[in-house]
Here is the input.
Amino acid sequence: MLTKRIIPCIDVDLDEDGEPAVYTGVNFEDLKYTGDPVEMAKLYNQAGADEFVFLDITASADGRETMLDTVSRVADEVFIPLTVGGGIRTRDDIKETLRAGADKVSINTAALQNPDLVNEGARAFGSQCIVISVDARRRFDEEGEYYAEVDGESCWFECTVKGGREGTGIDVVEWAGEAESRGAGELFVNSIDSDGTKDGYDIPLTKAVCDEVSTPVIASSGCGGPEDMYEVFTEAGADAGLAASIFHFDEYSIQDVKSYLDERGVPVRL
Amino acid sequence: MSTTTTEPRETLASVVMVDYGLGNLRSAQRGLERAGADVTVSDDPSTFADADGIVLPGVGAFSEGMENAGPFREALAEAADRGQPIFGICLGMQMLLTSSEEAAHAGEGEVEGLDFIPGQNVRFDEGQKVPHMGWNELHVKRDHPLVEGVDTGASETPRADGPTGGSVDGEYAYFVHSYYAVPEDDEAIVATTDYGVEFPAIVANEEGNVFGTQFHPEKSGETGLTILRNFVEFCAEQ
Here is the structure.
């Protein structure tokens, strides 16, 4: 039986000396240093991670160069799938990142600005390596396409850019369907409202996307423990759960999460 | 000489990885090196004969893969006849069969596979998420050098029709695919995996020298490295 994937997310920035370093944040701000990305990937691999997501949060040319080098070093040491995101804007960026050893690339803003990039990437490299990432924000007004019930109120989810600081007016659920039809092989759903809160994933958001598309969905933002993973798998139908801080700060091990899920009948790779 | 710097290790066998212009070859190369192979990535068919084994990697579409593999068709057929080990990974495995529905779905008519293992590749039925992406369990159906392994006790109750000693039975491997192989002869099936339908995860020809995995051993952690190690050891024994 296909198992649910537990994915640690590693945000890579440059430290003061220009070396790659992992930071983790609260609501996309206030970053805290947590270690060397390659060492971290090795530890997570031993701990039973099913996959990794590496995000380049530097958004700079230097950062991009360092990121590709980090990806190569990780890919040479760790034999599980690796998704790389952050700053991927062109077909050449996709190619370069895959060449460095990534199995998938995660594209966010560039795909919203130029949806043809999804088709182009899927045609050239295969749908399996094109992950479309969204930073969703709840909106309680009349401008959306798809509405969900949140705390007794009706809301829709807007795609944002620049770490949630700017709205686009694009409905996440509608965009997810479009990205899929353009050839996206997986959807990576972040929530600006839940990010860093540890209050659980945005279930209505994740469920709305899972109900709309048939490609796999990675739920992200808000995981505070094993029970949040359980909820997003069983109530929202996510295929993978991503978490950062609970693993980085050793609040829970990947095995803790998997044991919890296994005891409750959720298939995981033990 | 291997160029890897991560794991200086004794080299057991020389392996040519066929570069037909698709996908990320780096992981498969590093995985094979870690397993003890001296890997040459090559698009020159004249290098095949001297290698201890040949790997057909693969990510992408069947028709494009076969088109790109066209120049190697003859050299691969000769290698198969000579009894050289040939290992297809993912699309590379699907190419070992006779044909695929994928080419027809893409409106490209009949595209011939390598036909080392008679059969065709078909698409998963509606109702399953496609691609089948993630970690799924291996059920070993018969003995083959590729599936030998340390007995981890993962499979608690050995099946009557299963293998006897230690093997990768019950272990998990990483899959990404929308089509799966249907060999004409059930004997070609070495291991299966369940995704709504029980499909072949590992296939092999009658002689045992041509085989392939639908999953990516180079992305399947320790289990994958065990399988790559089995392949390299098999190459060394030939």
Chain A has a mean pLDDT of 90.
